[in-house]
From TrEMBL:
Full protein name: Uncharacterized membrane protein YgdD, TMEM256/DUF423 family
Domain of life: Bacteria
Primary site of residence: membrane
Record key words, sorted: Membrane, Transmembrane, Transmembrane helix
Residue ranges the record marks as coiled coil: none
TM regions (residue ranges): 6-25, 46-64, 70-92, 99-123
Compartments reported by the entry: Membrane
Family statement: Belongs to the UPF0382 family.
Bilayer topology term: Multi-pass membrane protein
GO cellular component, one term: plasma membrane
Organism expressing this protein natively: Marinococcus luteus
Length: 125
């Protein structure tokens, strides 16, 4: 059942986003520059937003029967976006590896593509 996978994946990622965000707020404020702390927090915000998006996509899939590959693509693209976008921002801010800034937009594209897949899926349902 795809909807269950998406809801669980979203809930796990939401829990991770809370922990990662708390670590940033309480454990990194004196260790990172303001710019890198802001970068880290941006990753945590988008992580949470798209975790909730995964849960919502799972709910849409459950409600509509989730028979289309589009709803699956929507969920997997949001998950890929979390890994690429938020993950690259976390690593960039903690390590200073600047080339990771080139990975972040790929995550953003995955987010956008996932939301577009959801739009198409809902309009076709």
């Amino acid at each position: 059942m795809l909807w269950k996978v998406l809801v669980v994946l979203g809930a796990v990622n939401a829990a991770l986003a809370v922990g990662i965000g708390a670590f940033g707020a309480h454990g990194l404020e004196s260790r990172l520059s303001n710019r890198m702390l802001e970068t880290y927090h941006t990753g945590a915000q988008y992580h949470m937003y798209h975790s909730l998006g995964l849960i919502a996509i799972g709910a849409v899939a459950a409600y509509t029967g989730g028979g289309s590959a589009l709803v699956g693509w929507a969920g997997w693209l949001l998950f890929a976006g979390i890994v690429l976008f938020s993950g690259s921002l976390y690593v960039l801010s903690l390590s200073g590896i600047s080339w990771l800034g080139a990975v972040t937009p790929l995550g953003g594209v995955a987010f956008i593509a996932g939301w577009i897949c959801l739009i198409i899926y809902v309009l076709k349902a």
